[in-house]
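Tokens as discussed.
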């Protein structure tokens, strides 16, 4: 068991879907999984752009797996403490995001060096 990390910069749903898919697969094999949000992805996450749709509305943009959207899968995995979600501290400041709101949505606000230290030299995907 190791650490598997995804650095997500893109705000598009297809990239979010790929990131969550890889993180879920890493958790399924027993790895610690970390999602590090930067730039447009951080803003999209904090603004809840990838939230699960209202019941009966169907999946967002057609992306779903086993009848779950990427947002629902991520929320479920986070609920079990299986995936850590970090916000990039520099992007929080640069994007002028409310620090309290950001802190309430992620597990930690950390800098790039702290994230890389947590990643422990394990595999890192960038979307």
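Sequence:
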């Amino acid at each position: 068991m190791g650490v598997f990390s995804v650095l997500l910069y893109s705000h598009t749903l297809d990239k979010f879907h790929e990131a969550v898919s890889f993180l879920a697969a890493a958790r399924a094999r027993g790895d610690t999984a970390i999602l590090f949000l930067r730039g447009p992805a951080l803003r999209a996450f904090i603004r809840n752009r990838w939230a699960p749709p209202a019941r009966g509305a169907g999946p967002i943009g057609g992306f779903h797996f086993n009848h779950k959207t990427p947002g629902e899968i991520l929320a479920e995995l986070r609920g079990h403490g299986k995936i850590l979600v970090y916000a990039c501290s520099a992007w929080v400041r640069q994007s002028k995001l409310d620090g309290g709101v950001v802190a309430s949505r992620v597990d930690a606000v950390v800098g790039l060096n702290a994230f890389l230290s947590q990643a422990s030299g394990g595999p890192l995907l960038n979307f």
